[in-house]
Amino acid sequence: MIHIHKTGGTSLVTAFGQLASKTKGKRLTSYQPRPNTMPARKPPQVQNRAFPHGSEARNNTGNFLDGAVKYRETWGEKEHTLFAVVRDPAERFISAIGQATGAYGSVRNGVGQWLRDECVKETGRETLRCFVDVMMNNGTWIEVHFTPMAYEISFATMNKDIPVAVFPFDQVPTLLYELNQNPAAKKKDGKKKGYRKSEVLTNLTIDDYDEGTMRDLCEVYAVDVLLLSRIGYSSNCDPFDKFSQS
Question: What is the spatial distance between Cα 143 and Cα 131, in angstroms, rounded to a whole number?
Answer without folding.
Answer: 12
